[in-house]
Automatic annotation (TrEMBL):
<keyword id="KW-0158">Chromosome</keyword>
<dbReference type="GO" id="GO:0051301">
    <property type="term" value="P:cell division"/>
</dbReference>
<keyword id="KW-0498">Mitosis</keyword>
<keyword id="KW-0131">Cell cycle</keyword>
<comment type="function">
    <text>Acts as a component of the essential kinetochore-associated NDC80 complex, which is required for chromosome segregation and spindle checkpoint activity.</text>
</comment>
<dbReference type="GO" id="GO:0031262">
    <property type="term" value="C:Ndc80 complex"/>
</dbReference>
<feature type="domain" description="Chromosome segregation protein Spc25 C-terminal">
    <location>
        <begin position="157"/>
        <end position="227"/>
    </location>
</feature>
<comment type="similarity">
    <text>Belongs to the SPC25 family.</text>
</comment>
<protein>
    <recommendedName>
        <fullName>Kinetochore protein SPC25</fullName>
    </recommendedName>
</protein>
<dbReference type="GO" id="GO:0007059">
    <property type="term" value="P:chromosome segregation"/>
</dbReference>
<keyword id="KW-0137">Centromere</keyword>
<keyword id="KW-0995">Kinetochore</keyword>
<dbReference type="InterPro" id="IPR045143">
    <property type="entry name" value="Spc25"/>
</dbReference>
<dbReference type="Pfam" id="PF08234">
    <property type="entry name" value="Spindle_Spc25"/>
</dbReference>
<feature type="coiled-coil region">
    <location>
        <begin position="44"/>
        <end position="78"/>
    </location>
</feature>
<keyword id="KW-0132">Cell division</keyword>
<keyword id="KW-0175">Coiled coil</keyword>
């Protein structure tokens, strides 16, 4: 049968106070036993039976007191006190580690959510930017017409670089070449890597190209700029 007497460790009461309480209870119990023994000697049969029940209860209480005394001696043992202190320290360390890990988990969760939002934004941007191959197909007809009518020669330079060479720009020198190399990285802004001769205000034309992604319009405007340069050069002669 399991002992119903609770452990002293469950009460969270200082050892000194527990010891004082046990002594006080033991003294009262001894006094009670003496009083009941005196009454028992001169009582009736019914009273004797009641006294017997009280005596049995007294024995149970004495057994509980004895167990508490035993536990008190164990709790007062220096080795047990040291072990208990060590256990509490370990619990404190574990609680701190738990709090730290919870903080890290929350940080990782925030970073994950932020990364997810960034990925979604990049996907939307990628969907709004035409693929380079799509641009080439879309403008193929226009480029073919431009190449013929504007005396334009287009050649790939590898690594998403395309060179555009114009002739018939300069009225005084129809064979003179005017050229530029356009860099077309997928999903990134376009740029002009080389322009011969240099075109003033070229950055404005490039900004419009990146805003509209209209390569056909950009080529015609670059040719018009070359024509202006050639005209000024001829007028200065």
């Amino acid at each position: 049968m399991q002992d119903p007497t609770p452990s002293l460790e469950t009460f969270h009461i200082p050892v000194e106070e527990v010891s004082a309480r046990i002594k006080h209870a033991s003294d009262r119990l001894d006094s009670f036993v003496r009083d009941r023994a005196t009454a028992f000697a001169s009582s009736s049969s019914e009273a004797q039976q009641e006294s017997q029940r009280h005596a049995e209860r007294v024995q149970e209480l004495k057994a509980a007191i004895a167990k508490y005394k035993e536990q008190l001696e164990h709790l007062s043992n220096p080795s047990h006190v040291e072990e208990l202190s060590k256990t509490r320290s370990e619990i404190t360390v574990l609680q701190e580690k738990y709090s730290t890990e919870k903080g890290k988990e929350a940080l990782v969760r925030r970073e994950r959510d932020k990364l997810h939002e960034t990925v979604q934004e990049k996907r939307k941007e990628a969907q709004s930017v035409p693929d380079l191959d799509q641009l080439r197909v879309f403008h193929k007809v226009e480029l073919d017409v431009v190449s013929s009518s504007l005396k334009l020669r287009i050649s790939g330079k590898g690594d998403n670089k395309v060179q555009f060479i114009f002739t018939c720009i300069n009225e005084l020198d129809q064979k003179r070449k005017y050229s530029f190399i356009l860099y077309l990285p997928p999903g990134e802004p376009f740029s002009v890597l080389e322009c011969v001769p240099e075109i003033p205000g070229r950055s404005h034309l490039l900004s419009e190209l990146n805003a509209t992604r209209n390569i056909y319009l950009f080529i015609t405007r670059m040719r018009a700029a070359f024509v202006d340069i050639a005209s000024k050069e001829n007028n200065d002669k």
